[in-house]
Every structure is written in structure tokens, then in C-alpha cells.
Amino acid sequence: MELAFPAQEFEARLTRVQAEMREHQLDALLVTSPPNFRYFSGFDSQFWESPTRPWFFLIPAEGLCTAIVPEIGAPLLKGSWIGDTLSWPAPCPADDGVTLLAGALERLPKRFGRIGMEFGRESAVRMPLNDLFLLKERLTGFELVDGSPCIWTIRAVKSAAEVAYIHQSCTVVCDAFDKLPGYARCGLSEREIGQRLTADIILGGAHSVPFMAAASGWGGYEQIISRPSGRTLNDGDILIIDVGATVNGYFCDFDRNFGFGQVPDAALRANEALWDATDAAIKLAVPGTTTTDLWRCMSGVLEKAGAQGYNVGRLGHGLGLQLTEPPSHMPGDNTVLQEGMVITIEPGMEYAPGKMLVHEENIHITASGPQILTRRAPRELIVIGR
Asked: Would residue 2 count as lying in a domain?
């Protein structure tokens, strides 16, 4: 199995999560979701697109881990840094690894009688619920509890190697965005522009582009999550493209706005207000600041600029092996920024009914101040064909 990091990186993650497990009184963590399985094991495959077979990664309170996987995956995991690999012939709907998994769990020392699973926020269990219920019935002396706080605590703080991959993905997409004004023009569709942008991102060195959203309209847009559509760009339009590309699984997540022809003055002013809000939040993003502080900072700038609302619910989030990770920059989140976190700064505003604009940059929290991983958008909107 080819690893994106040296084995020492995964061993360090194991040490950190086991310390968290002791704090939360867990005898083990049972991981099933692709991002967490990859984070702890190093295993990466597009085979995750097949939902037929469950995969289990067992992290004990002490010692090395055990991968409990379908036979098709065993050769990749055996002989790696992990420890033990158990497998069963799958798919086997009558017993898809449940007996094997229950046996491995029952052999664990029972200090606390608690096994953590991905039950919490922004988490999911990737196994049939009926199998989860059956597993619960077969366990004696263990209860299944939420272990996601342990996972998110250590995933929130990135290593230098993780940050380097995120930075690389940001650079590749920035390079591709820089080329866009050279080919985009009125009369082309969002889809045509998005296809060219995707090609440039892949040719530039990204490993995948799992996420690309685009929207356009005269002077702005009303949503920011749809795929690039067949809508053609016209005079006065603003096009947003939001990209999540990966290098070795690590995402960038940022957008760029482009105007076409004669863009309304109100939209140009809103664009500058968003740049100012982004700038203020970046300067504030240092260890000790909270996510609520960031939200207040951005919303204050936007309110002064006449913002009429925003329907997304937050103004940025964490970033890493997933396009979006905790925390959320919103009232009440109150997560304290720590050195090593990577976050997005994502202010948005509706400056007129049905007319929204959004900016987004990616930054790394360091002791010496924020490191901007993207190349910042200019304060003045890039306008094509003016």
C-alpha cells in the first residue's frame, strides 16, 4: 500500500488519538467512514465508491490498530504499519464482517466498557444499521458511544505535511483560475467554462476535483451550490466558481468571482465590501481567537456595507481531508483557533433581493500570524470584456 506520508505520521496520529481516548474513557475507537479510515490507516482507494462492503478500523486504547476488511482489500493493508489485518469473504449479506468484528472487540481489555464510534456531528457510520444493531446485541460488557470528539480534536490540528498538501492544492487551483479570463467570454456557458477549468486543474497537478459549484446572474446570483449549468454568460453577469480540488486527498476550498461586460456599480461595491470583510477576518485569525469572533468581525463589516442577509448560515469552516470540517464560523460555535488549524474565511452577502456575492480564501493558523494558502482575489472585481 502506497502511503501519502511516512509511517511516523500515522504513528503520531495514533499516539494523539489514544491520549484523547483515555480522556474520554474509551477502550477503543471503531472507525468506518472513508475519511477517518484513510486518516488513521493511510488506505486510499476509489473503491470507496462501491457501498456494497463495510470496512472497519479498530483503534485500541493501547497498542497498534486492527483493520477488519473484506478479502478484496486485505492484500493492500497486510504488511503495512497498521498491526493486524483480519478479513472475510465479502459481500456476505448474512454476516458481512459482524462476527469477525464482534470477536475482535470482545478480545479487548474492558477498562471502561465503552467503544467510541462516529455518532457525532459531521460524522457518519458506514455500515448497515441492521448490522450495527446486531453488533450491539453481540457485545457483552461494552456500550457503543460517540467517539467523534476524539477524532475531530486531533484532525483539527494539521501537521506540516498535511498543510503542505492543502497549500499545493490551493496553488494548483489558483494557477487554473488565473487562466480563466483568457478563455471565458459572453456566450459561453457555466458548464463550458467549468470543464476547461477542471482540465486545467488536473493538468496542473491536482489528483481530483470532487467539488465544483457555479452560479451566475446579472449583478450576482441567488445560490452557490449547484453544478455548472448550461446557462450562458451575458453582459452584466457575475459568475462565481467554487472549487474543492485535492492533492493526496487534502482539499482546497475557495471561490473566485468574474464579471462580464458592464457590471452594476452596486455589485462592484458589494464585491469590495466582501474583500474588506475577508481581510479583516484574516488579520483576526490567530491562536486564541474564536470562530464566533471571526463571524462577528465579518458580519460587522458587511452590515456597515448594507448587507440585506445571507442564507448559508456560517462564514467559513475547517478544511482538510474533507471539503468541509468543523468548526463553523457562526454565532455560538466558539471554537478557539489553535496553531496548526486550516480554515476557510468565507463571507457572503445579499446586497439586493436575489443578488448574492461570496468570497472565500484558505488560511493556516500559525503562532506568527495567519498564513494565506491561496493567492488572494483582487479587491476590484475581475471583469471580462469590459
From this structure: no
